[in-house]
Amino acid sequence: MSLALGVHVGQQNLTMLAMRKLWKDLDEARVDWISAWDHFYEAPPANGTQDHFEALTTLGALAADTQYARIGCLVFYVGYRNPASLAKAAATLDHISSGRFELGLGAGWHEQEARAYGYDFPPIGTRLDMLEEAAIIIRQMLSKDRTNFSGQHFSAIDAANQPAPLQPKMPIWIGGLGEKKTLRIVAQQADGWNAAYISPEKFDHLNQILNQWCSKSNRDPSSIKRSVNLSFNLALTDKDILREKDRIKKQWGPGADRIISGALLCKPEAAIEKLLEYHHRGADMINIAIRAPYHEETLRAYLDVVIPAVRAAAL
To answer: pTM score > 0.90 for this model?
Structure first.
């Protein structure tokens, strides 16, 4: 089983020029994937006090600036955009990127920004219902001449999406950790599943739950790609590890322990072993999630030392 290695670039605390240089450098380094996230405020939440760019417009620049990496968003919150409109944007991004775009969808979590921008943020059960309806509409919009759907939250009436994406079938990813509903929706609607900031053991557990949902849905488990995002806290010394751990605790507060469990909070040699452990537990793609400010020397070590070693071992 092959392993893709990508970078999830949070579009915060960076100028647009600096961010564009970063993803051009990543593309030249031949990472397999580059993505943004869908937020109006910074993550972790800080009440909108940090510079942060909008996702769709950022992805337009990413699509135009890169040539090799697959690109996407992990993940779009379906409460922020009409699904048919999002499908239209996805098809447009696929043309800008010459067929490299993949669409990620999720039920959202950043209540602070949603409330600030005037969006309803219903309970998670409702948001998951919205996710399921959105996935159905978007799949049809990306693959059929006309879409008709009438749901509790979203609808489409004889909707066309021309031009269609360049790809015969644009991959749809669904992100989330919920065992009872999220993974069922993945098994029934998605081409890929993304999990963020969880330990290898937790990833393995959820991966097996997804396989069970595939069985119940008469779906071949191998038809669904599995990916994980890891917080990028690579360090070159023991002192740097302590510094990075302290940074996570200050940023995430009560949620720090979960982030630490799903972080590359180690030196490059240990990072190689950790990435391979996720791969052996079923990950087809692993993305490091970069939040500025980051250290250039550790990113260089990841690109020049960790990625080649992991690719060689994963063959």
So the answer is: yes
